[in-house]
Amino acid sequence: MPDRGGGPTGPRIRAGRPSRRARALLMTLGVLAVLGMAFTMFAGFWTDWLWYRSVHYSSVFTTTLWTKIGLFFVFGLLMAVAVGVNIWLAHRLRPPLSAMSMEQQSLDRYRMGIAPYKRWLLLAVTALVGLIAGASAAGQWRTWLMWVNGVPFHQKDPQFHLDVSFYAFDLPWYRFLLGFGFAAAILCLIAAALTHYLYGGLRVTSPGARATAAATGHLSVLLGIFVALKAVAYWLDRYGLAVKSSDFKATGEWTGLRYVDANAYLPAKTILFCIAVICALLFFATLWRRTWQLPVIGFGLMVLSAILIGGLYPAIVQKFQVQPNEQAKEAPYVQKNLKATREAYGIDDAKVTEYSGQSTTKDKTRLRNDANDAASIRIMDPNIVSPTFQQLQQMKNYYGFPTNLDVDRYRTTDGKNVKDQDTVIGLRELNLEGIPKNNWINDHFRYTHGYGTVAAKGTEADSQGQPVFTESDMPSTGDLGSYQQAIYYGEKTTTYSIVGGPQKEIDYSDNNGEKTTSYTGKSGVNLDNPINRAAYAVVFNEPQILYSGAIGKGSRILYNRTPKERVEAVAPWLTIDGDAYPAVVNGRVQWIVDAYTTSNGYPYSSRTTLGDTTADSLTATNNNRTVVAQQNQVNYIRNSVKATVDAYTGEVKLYQWDTEDPVLKTWMKAFPGTVQPRNAISGDLMSHLRYPQDLFKVQRELLTRYHVSDAQTFLTGSEVWQVPDDPTNKSGSAVPPYYLSMKMPDQSRQAFSLSTTFTPNGRDSLSAFMTVDAAAGSSDYGKIRILKLPTSTTVDGPKQVQSQFNSEQDIAAAIKLLKGGDSDIEYGNLLTVPLDGGLLYVEPVYVRGGGLKYPLLRKVLVTYEGRTAFENTLGEALDKVFGTAGSTTTPPDTGTTTPPTSTNPTVQQALDDAQKAFDAGQKALQGPNGPDWTAYDKAQKDLRAALKRAQDAEAKAGQSTSGKNGSGKKS
To answer: For residue 5, what are the contacts with CB-CB under 8 A and spacing of at least 6?
Structure first.
C-alpha cells in the first residue's frame, strides 16, 4: 500500500493549505481590489480637476488643493513629531528595573509583549495622531488664506484700537494655532505619562517616590507648556471680548464688550495672564528643583483665581454696579454696538423719515391721478403665475418652469415714449419627468436642454386674466429680439448630459415636428479619453459611460448645471443668494447670481443667522430659494460680487461689485485673476442687475432694532419692530420683500425698488415701510428709505388689511361666488405703495379650478384709508376707491357686450353666433355650482371667432364696422 501520509512512496499532502493556483488567484484578487479602491479615490480627484479646468477656474482647484495638502503635512508632521519625540524621550529616561515591585512585575509582561514591535508601535501611534491632526488642519484652509492674504479695513475697534482685520483675519488663525497647541500638549502629556508608567518612571501603588526625577522633569515641562498656552489663551481672550456674543436682557443677543466686560472681565483676564505666566515658570523650574510642591501650589492658585477673579468678581460688579443703574452704565457700550452693527451690515446710511399715514388731499381726481404715478403696480405675481406659464407656454411635457418666476426690467416703447417695463420672466427648462419614455439614452443624450424665454408684462392681464406675453411661443419670439435660446444650464437642470457626440439631441418642436441639434459649445469635459470615461463611470456609478457606442469623438459631459451650484464651486469663499434669475443680455441668456462676502469677526457688531433671517414664506415652500452660506453665523456682510452663468455654455464670470470690501480684496489676493473688475460689466448687463433679496432680508431684520440711533431708546426696547408674517400664506413665515417700480415721497419719479413692511413687536398695526433702490444703474442704488409711522395713531398693517378684505360683506359674497364648484382662490402679493401721506394696498386675486389647472387673474383688491374695492381690473378698483366711478361690485369682465345687428346675411349669421356665445358665457358665470371657467373660456373663444368673421365679412362688403348698432349698444 502506498504511504498516503507522504512517505517515500508518495508526495506529502499538507491539509488545509491552499494550492499554488488558489494562492495566485487570491493574490490577484487582492491586488485588483486595492487597485479598484485606489482608482475610485483617484476618479473623484481627477474629475474635479477636469471640471475646474473646463470652466477655466483651475487656479481655484490648485490653490485650494495645495493649501490643504500643505496644512495637512505641516501640522500632521508637527503633531506626529511632538508625540513621537515625547514617547521616545520618556522611553529613553526610563529607570533601571533592579528591584521589581508587584506593580512592575504585572507590567513586565506588557513590556515584553510590545518589545519586538516598539518601533512599529511608535510609528503607528505617531502616524495616527499625525493623520488626525493633519486632516483637522486641512479644514482650516479658509482661515489660513484669509490670515496670510488679509488686507486692512482701515477701521479700528473702539476698545483696543486695533484694525478690524485683526479680528476678521488674524484672531481666527491665532485661535486655531492655540487650539492645535493645546491638543499637542495634552496628547504629548498623555503619551509621555503612559510611557513613563509602563517603564517604571511613574508608580501608583509601589512604596517610595511616585515619580523618578527624570519623569518629574519631563512631565513638568509639558505641564509648563500647557499652562503657558493657557496664559496665551487668557491674553487672546481679552481681544475676544470685542467679538464675544452674550445674552443681554435689554436687547437680546449681544456682541462686544459691555460694562462688566470692560471693567471686570478685561482686568481679570490680564491678571490671570500674569498668574498663568508665573505658574508656567514654576513648572519649568522643576527641572532644577525636582519637586512638584511649588508648581502644584501655583496651579491651584491659578484655578482659584480663575474662579474668584474670572467668575465671582464680574458677577459682583454686574449685581451691585450695573443692575441698579443699567441704562447709564451700558449706554456708552450700546452706542458702540449701534455704530458697529450699522456699519457692518451696510445700514448706517438708512434714511428714516416720519410719515403721517394719513392723506391730506381732498381732491379725489388728483389722488386718482397720483395713484397712477405712485407705482407701476404689478398685478402679475411671479410666485403665483408659474402654473399659468406652464399651461400656456410649456409646449411639450418635457419642458417646465421654476416654481417661482422672476421680476426683471426690459425697455419698451409705446410708439412715443421709451420706458422700463417691470416684467415677469422664466425660462422653458428641461423637465425629465415629462419625457415620453425614460431610459439612459433619452435622459442623458436626446433630451439635454430646455428652449426659450417666456416673459409677460407685470402690470397687465388680458380680458381672461391671462398674462400679456411679450416673449412667447416656440421658438420664442417677441420684444427680446434674437438670442441663443437653448437652455443647457438652469435651476431645474440637476442631472448630467452627454452632448456633442454621434447621438443627436432634440432641440425644440414646432408645427413641422421635432428639430434636432448637436451641442457646439465648449462647455463640459471631453470624453474622448478612455481614462476620463472610466473616471466618470465610477463617479456617476454608470458603467455604460465606459462602453456605450452613443459616446464618440467630440462627446462632452455636462454636469454641475444649476447656476448657484456653479458659482459656489468656482468661488467657495462666497455665500450665494437664494434667487438666481435669468436675463437676455447681448443676445445670450445669462443667469445672474448675487454673491456675498461675510465675516464673523467684526468687533461690536451683533450676529445674525443667515438661514433664519433669510427665511420667508417662499423659502418655506421652495428649497431652491434658500441661501447657500459658507458660514451661517455672521456679523458682517457685503454684496461684493455679481456673477453670471451662460445658459448655453455654462461660462461663469465673477465681477467685483463692492470695490471697497476688504474681505473681497483678501480673497482676490488669495485667488488672483478669478474676479473681473467692475468696469468689465457691460451696459446691457448692468441694466439687469438689481439689489439682492437675501441681503435686503438680513438688513430689514437688523433694522427692526437698529433703526434707532440713540442708546437710551435702544435699551428701553420701545421702538422694536418685527417683520410681519405673510398674510396670504398659511406657513406662518415672514412676508417676502417685493420688487416694484414705485415713487417714494422724496423721489420725483418711479424707481425700481425692493420693499417691505414692519409692524410693532407683538402687534399687527403698521410701524414702518422700507424700500431700497434696486436698479444697479441708478445713482441712488442701495439707498435705504424708511417711512416711520406715528405711534400716536394706528395704521393698518398687512394682516389687518387682509382681514378687512376677507370680512367685507360684498367682497366675501363675491369671493364665495368665485369659489363656487371646485374652484379655489389664490391671493397674490399684497403690495404697499405710499400715496399722498397714506398707504395704498393692492392685492391681485386669482381663481384656479372649474376645469382649469392654472390660476387666472379675476379680481383686484384695493384699499386706501378704509375705502376698499374688489373689481375686475386695477383701474376699476382705483376708480371706486377714489370715488371716480360706480361703487357696485361687478361680475368678471366678459371682454364684450351684446353684439350688434346687420343687414348683411353673412354678417348677421356671424353676429347671431356671437350672441349665442355671449349668452353661453353669461350662463357659465352664473352656474348653480359657481362659475364654470372651462365653459366660459370656450364661449369667449367662440365669441371672438364669430366677431372676427363678422368683421371680415363687413370689410369684404365695403361696410364700416365701427359706430353703434340698431339697439344702441357698442360693438
So the answer is: 12
Q: In the numeric block, which cell numbers belong to residue 957?
A: 362688403
Across 858-871, average pLDDT: 90
With beta carbons less than 8 A apart as the criterion, state whether 582 and 589 touch. Answer: yes
Residue 325, C-beta contacts closer than 8 angstroms, at least 6 positions apart:
none
At 560-601, the pLDDT tens digits run 999 999 999 999 999 999 999 999 999 999 999 999 999 999
Give the up-direction half-sphere exposure of residue 546: CA atoms within 13 A in the CB hemisphere.
10
- Contact criterion met (CB below 8 Å) for 314 and 265: yes
Beta pairing partners, 212: none
* Closest-CA residue to 361 (of 787, 748, 836): 836
**Which residue type, as a one-letter code, is found at position 44?**
G
pLDDT in tens, 297-317: 888 888 888 888 888 888 898
Q: Could you give the angle at the alpha carbon of 514 between the alpha carbons of 509 and 516, nearest 5°?
A: 110
Structural domain boundaries in the chain: 58-95+104-211, 494-560, 896-971
CA dihedral of 619, 622, 628, 634, whole degrees rounded to 10: 10
Contact 741, 376 (CB under 8 A): yes
Nine cell digits for residue 67: 493649501
Question: For cell 407683538, what's the residue?
Answer: 762
Residue (of 92, 114, 313) closest to 214 by Cα position: 92
pLDDT in tens, 37-54: 777 788 889 999 999 999
Q: What is the DSSP letter of 735?
A: P
Within 94-241, where are the H helices? Answer: 102-114, 118-138, 141-149, 164-165, 171-198, 213-240
What DSSP element (H or E) covers 857?
A: strand 856-864
Q: Which set of grid coordinates corresponds to residue 477?
A: 419670439
> CB neighbours (10 Å) of residue 485?
23
Rounded CA separation 328/309 (Å): 25
Question: 676 - beta bridge partners?
Answer: 655
665 Cβ partners below 8 Å, 6+ apart?
151
Whether pLDDT at 758 is above 90? yes
Instruction: Round to whole Å and give the CA distance between 797 and 757.
Output: 8
Work out the number of other CB atoms within 10 angstroms of the CB of residue 872: 20
C-alpha cell at 483: 438670442
Q: Cα dist. 127→82, 114, 130, 518 in Å? A: 11, 18, 5, 52
Q: What secondary structure does DSSP assign to 537-600, as a single string?
A: HHHTT-THHHH-TT--TT-EEE---SHHHHHHHH-TTSEEPS--EEEEETTEEEEEEEEEEEES
C-alpha cell at 457: 408684462
Match 435660446 to its residue by C-alpha cell: 485
C-alpha–C-alpha distance, residues 311 and 302, integer Å: 13
For the chain, the farthest-separated pair of C-alpha atoms sits apart, in whole angstroms, at 135
Number of neighbours of residue 851 by Cβ within 10 angstroms: 14
Predicted TM-score of the model (pTM): 0.85
Strand, coil or helix: what is 359?
A: coil
Query: CA-CA distances (angstroms) from residue 905 to 908, 957, 963?
Result: 5, 11, 19
CB 337 within 8 A of CB 705: no
Distance between CA atoms of residues 281 and 299, nearest Å: 11
Q: What is the mean pLDDT of residues 551-555?
A: 91
Q: Give start and end residues of each alpha helix (H) in 420-485.
A: 440-441
Handedness of CA 493, 498, 500, 505 (dihedral sign): negative
| Torsion angles phi and psi, residue 813, rounded to 5 | -65, -40
* DSSP code for 13: P
8-state DSSP, 727: T
Q: What is the mean pLDDT of the chain?
A: 86
Reported in sequence order, the residue ranges of 369-528 that DSSP labels E, i.e. its strands, are 375-376, 399-400, 406-413, 418-427, 429-430, 450-451, 453-461, 467-472, 477-478, 486-487, 497-499, 505-510, 513-517, 525-526
Q: What is the pLDDT of residue 11?
A: 47
State the cell numbers at 89: 524621550
